[in-house]
Write a structure and sequence with these properties.
Blueprint lengths: L4 H10 L11 E10 L3 H12 L4 E4 L15 E2 L9 H19 L1 H11 L11 E5 L2 H15 L5 E5 H8 L6 E5 L3 E2 L2 H15 L2 E3 L6 E5 L2 E5 L3 E10 L11 H4 L2 E10 L4 H6 L6 E4 L5 E5 L5 E6 L5 H17 L8 E11 L6 E6 L2 E5 L6 H16 L20 H17 L5
Parallel strand pairs: 1-2, 1-11, 2-8, 4-13, 11-18
Antiparallel strand pairs: 3-7, 4-6, 5-6, 9-10, 10-11, 12-15, 12-16, 13-14, 14-15, 17-18
Bound molecules: flavin-adenine dinucleotide.
The site of flavin-adenine dinucleotide has 41 residues, from α2, β16 and α11.
Amino acid sequence: MLDNPRSHGLWEKTAPPAPVTEALRGVATAQVVIVGGGYTGLSAALHLAEAGTDVVLLEAHEFGFGGAGRNVGLINAGMWVMPDDFPRELGSRYGERLLELLGNGPYLVRDLIDRHDISCELERNGTLHCATGEDGLKELEERAAQWQKRGAAIELLDAAETERRVGTPAYVGSLLDMRAGTLQPLAYARSLAGAALKAGARLHTHSAVTAYEERGGRRIVRTAQGEVSADWVIVATEAYSTGPWEVIRQEQVYIPYFNLATAPLSREQQRAILPGREGCWDTREVLSSFRMDKAGRLVFGSVGALRGTGTAIHKAWARRSLQRIFPQIAGIPFEAEWYGMIGMTDNALPRLHKFAPNVLGFCGYNGRGISPGTTFGKVLASHILGSIAEDDLPLPFTDPKMPPLRAVKEAYYELGAQVAHFAGERF
Ligand SMILES: Cc1cc2nc3c(=O)[nH]c(=O)nc-3n(C[C@H](O)[C@H](O)[C@H](O)COP(=O)(O)OP(=O)(O)OC[C@H]3O[C@@H](n4cnc5c(N)ncnc54)[C@H](O)[C@@H]3O)c2cc1C
C-alpha cells in the first residue's frame, strides 16, 4: 500500500483487492460526508447508504491505510479496562450503556460479515486472554467475575484446558470470550468498502481532507482537487488523523505494536497449536499476542516499532519467545513483518467529539477498534438518521483533551519496549 512491506505486512499480501475507486475531483454535494476509510467511516457509509442516505466518503490514502489494515485482527468485546471501570469513569448511565454496546460489538461485526457475504477469514471460536503467572490469573478471575455478573459469555479455563487449546504449557489459565474471534483486518475493511459501494455510497480514495469551513449553512470539506458540501460531517480519522481534525491524533499517545507472520505450519503443527483458532494475548505488561491466519501462519506480535535498532531487537526477542512458547515450531521462518501505531487516551476509553454543529466523531479506541469502530460507525449513522437521540448516545460529547508530555511518553514506550525485549523477558 505504501511501497513499504512493513506498513501492512501479511494483510496486504493475502487480502482480496480493494474495489476500484478514484480521487474526488470537482464539487459534490451530499447529505453526509465521511472523512476516513477505516472501520468507523466504512461502517457509517454502509449503514447510511443502506438507509437511502446520499453519502460521500473521503479517504486520504486507501481503505484500511490506518489501523484497519495493520492490526492483529482480534475482534474484541469491550476495551482493555476492566468492565467495572466503565461506570466508575463515565458514571453508570454512560458507563453501562457503552459497556453493553461494546460487549455486543463482535455480534454486529459477525452480522455484517454474514449479511454481506464478506470473505475475511472470520473465526468465531472466541479469544483467550492467557495468564502468565498468578497475578495474571487473579486479574482474569476479577475480569471474569465483572463480565459474568453482566451475563457475558465468558469462561475461566484452567492450565490444562488452556494448554489443550493453545498448544503450550506456558500459561496458568486463560479467559475464554466466546463473543470474540479473529478476522483478516484489511480484507474486512476492503469488503466493507465493497458493500458500501454496492449500497450506493460514493467512495473516494487518495482524497485527503485538507480544510473545513461552514458556508451558507452548509459544511464544506476540501481536498486537493475538489470539495464536498454536506449537511453532516462524520470525522472517522482516529489515530491516523491528518488535516483539519489532527487534534484527534494529538490527544492520543502512540504505542507502537509489531507483528511477525511465520510460514504456514504443517498440518500436524496446526493440530497441536491453536487447533480451535482462538485469538490470544497474554497478561504481561509488555504484552504479546498470537493467532493463526487461514493458511495456518502464526501471527505473533508485541509492543514495539520495527525501525532503527528496534527491528533487530524485537525480531530476536520474538524468535526466542516463540522457541520457548512453541518449541514444536522452533526455527520456522517469518514470511512478513509489520507495525503500526495504537492511539491511547489517558483513561483508556473512547471519546465522542462535536467539532461543530453536525460535525461529529468518535476516537480513542485504544487498540480495540474492529468491533468498536464498526459499532460507532453504525451509531453515528443511526444518530444522523434520527433513530438515536443525542441523549441516548453511548458517550457524552467532550472536548479534545491533550495528554501532557505526549512526545516524551511516546519515546518512552518505543524505547521501553526495546529495553524490555532486549533484556529478554521470559515470554
Ligand atoms: C498494530 C495495531 C494492532 C491492533 N490490533 C487490534 C486488534 O487486534 N483488534 C482490534 O480491535 N483493534 C486493534 N487495533 C486498533 C484498530 O486497528 C483501530 O482501532 C481501528 O483501525 C480504528 O478504526 P477507524 O476506522 O476508526 O480508524 P483507522 O482504521 O485508523 O482509519 C482512519 C482512516 O482515516 C484516514 N484519514 C486520516 N486523516 C484523513 C484526512 N485528513 N482525510 C481523509 N482521510 C483521512 C486514514 O488514512 C485512515 O485510513 C490495532 C491497531 C494497530 C495499529
